[in-house]
Design a protein that fits this description.
Blueprint: E1 12-15, H1 26-34, H2 37-55, H3 62-73, H4 78-96, H5 99-110, E2 114-122, H6 123-133, E3 136-140, E4 142-145, E5 148-153, H7 161-170, E6 179-183, H8 189-193, E7 197-200, E8 203-205
Parallel strand pairs: 1-2, 1-6, 2-3, 6-7
Antiparallel strand pairs: 4-5, 7-8
Length: about 210
């Protein structure tokens, strides 16, 4: 992959994670691994209509993920979940990476671009993975209290407009020669809108009509 970079300014590359960097939804796989079976069954009972609506493009995933967090992580011990998340980052995530997207991400890093993962997934496993590869991270977090999770998100989920808000809050976008964005769902629309070069499901697009 060849990306031209003016010498005086770097580029900024923004990558969604689930379905963009990965071949599958890492969020769903992690939830399935970390939740006790009874919690998982309960979460699926309440959220399956929302999951169908989300996949059909009728509904944002925010409501479904909020319910999953509430049912699946309420009063769960942080230390137990964190141990599963660390192993997930080390063992499971490498097997999910799309080779072609890893090549693009690596090309940006190699030429000195600023590279960030901007994802609705949890920091529990994204933080160690991103730290290992020298990537900046904006993502969702679970609220904690007394060594246990409350079942609520800590702040807003990092999806839709929140993705763009966090990027703008951290970066002065005028300092970059070009901004690249990579996404795969309508939740990435605002992230893609920020970019000079937009890649949706692996294909470069000129506008957001196909998103």
């Amino acid at each position: 992959m060849t990306i031209g970079v003016p010498k005086e300014r770097p580029n900024l590359a923004l990558f969604d994670f689930d379905g963009t960097i990965t071949t599958q939804d890492a969020y769903g796989i992690f939830v399935g691994l970390v939740m006790p079976r009874w919690r998982l069954c309960l979460a699926l009972t309440f959220t399956w209509p929302l999951i169908i609506a989300y996949r059909a493009g009728w509904l944002s995933g925010i409501t479904g993920r909020r319910l999953v967090a509430r049912i699946g992580f309420y009063h769960a011990r942080c230390a137990v979940v964190e141990a599963v998340a660390q192993r997930f980052a080390e063992v499971n995530i490498p097997a999910l990476i799309r080779p072609e997207m890893w090549e693009k991400l690596s090309a940006h890093l190699a030429q000195g671009d600023q590279v960030a993962v901007v994802s609705g997934s949890f920091d529990l496993y994204l933080q160690p993975w991103c730290k290992k590869h020298g990537l900046q991270l904006f993502c969702s977090s679970l609220e904690r209290s007394g060594g246990r999770f409350t079942g609520n998100y800590a702040g807003f989920q990092c999806v839709g407009a929140e993705k763009a808000r966090r990027v703008r809050a951290h970066f002065d976008l005028d300092q970059f020669a070009e901004i690249y964005a990579y996404g795969d769902t309508p939740d990435d629309r605002e992230l893609l809108a920020m970019a000079h070069r937009k890649f949706y499901r692996g294909i470069e697009i000129n506008d957001l009509a196909s998103v």
